[in-house]
Amino acid sequence: MKNAILFSAIAAASLGLAASFAVAQSADTVTSLRGAQPDQDIGLAPVYHQEEGRQDRNYRQQPPIIPHTIDKYQIDVKANECLACHDWKNAAERGAPTLSMTHYVSRDGVQTDDVAPRRWFCNQCHVPQVNAPELVQNTFQGSDN
């Protein structure tokens, strides 16, 4: 019985804390590092095909930057919309760069016709290219090698 009362008291305190946190985090108190309001449309660029060109890489083995938005792309366990254009089976027809052949090598080093599971989630290495101001001062210098 003591444990039930203690559990009820902890649960009530937790709910009270969660509710006060939710009120403190309302849309009026959230601020963006870029100064935009949380509900403000920041005007993302539409998908384009190399019109602005690719950005140079800063170091060897840097994954290429994605030159278009991927906001509404489904990239999860069930589907990967990037492959609709970039899989070797579709790239020529779509005029898109083909994935590196390293994406078709299994963990055991076997060459396959399908993207390896460890390379399935493109955005764990590749990020969309955006023209945005730096959020913090950046003194990074790219490699000359």
From TrEMBL:
The keyword Electron transport applies. Residues 1-24 form the signal peptide. Gene3D superfamilies: Flavocytochrome C3, Chain A. This is Periplasmic nitrate reductase, electron transfer subunit. PANTHER family: PERIPLASMIC NITRATE REDUCTASE, ELECTRON TRANSFER SUBUNIT (PTHR38604). Belongs to the NapB family. Keywords: Electron transport, Heme, Iron, Metal-binding, Periplasm, Signal, Transport. It comes from the Bacteria. It is found in: Periplasm. InterPro entries: Multihaem_cyt_sf (IPR036280), NapB (IPR005591). Electron transfer subunit of the periplasmic nitrate reductase complex NapAB. Receives electrons from the membrane-anchored tetraheme c-type NapC protein and transfers these to NapA subunit, thus allowing electron flow between membrane and periplasm. Essential for periplasmic nitrate reduction with nitrate as the terminal electron acceptor. Component of the periplasmic nitrate reductase NapAB complex composed of NapA and NapB. It comes from Rhodobacter flavimaris. The keyword Electron transport applies. Its main location: periplasm.
